[in-house]
Amino acid sequence: MRASQNDDTIVWYENLLILNNPEKQLNTIKIHPNPADTALFIKSGDSDTLAQMNVTSILGNNIWHSKTFQHKIDIENWASSIYFLEIKNNTGQKKVFKIVKK
């Protein structure tokens, strides 16, 4: 709690502990190897909450899509380039990773 000396205003701050924070879950995702030539491996502490994955090219074209979380993406037949992997959780939050195909 804080009181203002200028205008008699009292401001109340409350810190809430959120045990199952979806944004924190997205921050635990690890992708390796990057750059890669044959496959990407995705590791997450809580993959049950991850709902959708999408890969687009640097030009914005859809390359790959899955409605469920996948621990491995086969990229062997993809052209050497930069791609963007978007992972969404079941609350709609998303995180985008830049991946490089050798």
TrEMBL record:
Residues 31-95 form the Secretion system C-terminal sorting domain. It comes from the Bacteria. InterPro entries: Secre_tail. Keywords: Signal. The keyword Signal applies. This is Secretion system C-terminal sorting domain-containing protein. It comes from Patiriisocius marinus.
